[in-house]
Batch of 3 targets.
Target 1
Amino acid sequence: MCRFATLALVIALVANTAIAADDLHPIAADMKKKLKDPAKPFTVFVTVKVKAGKEAAFEAAFLGCAKDTLKEKGVLRYEINRDADHPEVFVLYEKWKNLDGLNDHLNLPHTVKLLKELADYVDGAPVFKVYTAPGE
């Protein structure tokens, strides 16, 4: 069952077609379910365990994507952090102006390329946590 869930997540990550009724990327559609108001800013932490020996390649792929992502209108913050105790674990910190900003990002060529590359680097399913600011 766990392998099926991982496979399903990877398929959703690399899909570049909208499957939701709102024409949202699968990841954005999942985020929408967690947001009270998709028009307001939100933060996403993604914890990723990388396959042994693939850490440098994962970092390079992410940093390449980050340069283009930081130029996008809908992004407020986009960075990678590596666990000091577990160097195979990374936490991605993303802050978006709104759900449309994230959805636009997920459909841009640099992001599509990164999501396709993830299948070669990731060990297990990434864990997504969504946060909103109090009062938002």
Note: Strands lie at 42-49, 75-82, 89-96, 127-131.
Target 2
Amino acid sequence: MEKLHYSIIIDAPKEKVWKTMLEDKTYREWTEAFNQGSYYEGEWKAGSDIRFLGPEKDGTVSGMISRIRESRPFDFLSIQHLGEINHGKETMYAEGGQNVEAFENYTFNDKDGTTELLVDLDSPEQYAKMFNDMWPKALEKLKQISESNN
């Protein structure tokens, strides 16, 4: 696993950035950088299971099986990825001897009315280059949406 770090300054209060990031409609917009049609099923509450999904060209669904480990609204969100869905087939990381601690953490810092959003995630090495391309685009879209109607 590689530890990846991204950050962006958004000219909006952290409460607005949090809501923009997590509400269904705007989540679907900013996550298009990862997969056109991305969505989630579940809740953002600590202890809740959540799935991050997106359509494949063949009509199947792929994504992540995850659990919200910590949720402190407007301050911090920690997601643990427990498995993957590839073309509709679920594979848990604990199966096949993979004992993977894969986390995706978001920290929201108030910077004089703007928000510094920090993203820290564990990535399999083969995905690092792809994420280094996609994450900055996704964060720019989140910034654009969060700053609109400010």
Note: Residues 125-147 form the longest helix (23 residues).
Target 3
Amino acid sequence: MEIIIEEYTGTFAENKDTAKKLREGLIKPIVYIKEKVTLNFTNIDSTTQSFIHALISEICQKNGEEALEYLEFKSCNKAVKSIVKTVINYSLD
């Protein structure tokens, strides 16, 4: 499954309530059945750490490094990639 983030957020992904809805409604059910979810960040100029935290942190904390087998991050610019890495690192610690 591929989730095009821009369809839910516009070019600036900041609303953590939107992130939570994506996590609960789309991402968690797919990861739970051990299938891959592609989070497509095409056209996302920037995001907040709180958005990425709400989007993936709980999944990483509950599933550990195994979560990364089922989460794919596509078309992240340098700023988005940095935030995603930060959230993954502290979620897995």
Note: Residues 19 and 55 are 5 Å apart (CA to CA).
